[in-house]
From TrEMBL:
Keywords: Aminotransferase, Folate biosynthesis, Pyridoxal phosphate, Transferase
Name of the protein in question: Aminodeoxychorismate lyase
EC nos: 2.6.1.42, 4.1.3.38
GO MF annotation: an example: 4-amino-4-deoxychorismate lyase activity
């Protein structure tokens, strides 16, 4: 990661913590979800695992790649693509992945469970 990415992540996390939230969801300039403030994000809809693609600005994380590999090995379809925030509202499940986060469920998004 570049030092500028760390600064953005720290500022985003501080802002959401001040508002009473645990984690930030970062968007790209077009409004698509990229990642959490320090971890990757996944959602599951209809048995398919979706995650923002690297070309769209997602972190190229080791834990992310491990989850993708394991999911494919277990026979799950994995789609790397641009994801809108609205898709998290209707997802069957969602979670963060990262070295520190490991695999952490997202129980609420924009005050929606």
């Amino acid at each position: 990661k570049a030092s500028g990415n760390y600064t953005l992540s720290i500022l985003a996390h501080q802002e959401v913590a001040h508002s009473g939230y645990d984690e930030a969801m970062l968007m790209d300039p077009q409004g698509y979800v990229c990642q959490g403030s320090g971890e990757n994000v996944f959602l599951v809809k209809d048995g398919v695992l979706h995650t923002p693609d690297i070309a769209g600005g997602a972190l190229d994380g080791i834990t992310r790649q491990t989850i993708i590999t394991i999911a494919k090995d277990l026979g799950y379809e994995v789609v790397e693509r641009r994801i809108t925030r609205d898709e998290f509202y209707i997802a069957d499940e969602a979670f963060f992945t990262g070295t520190a986060a490991e695999v952490t469920p997202i129980r609420e998004y924009d005050d929606r469970q």
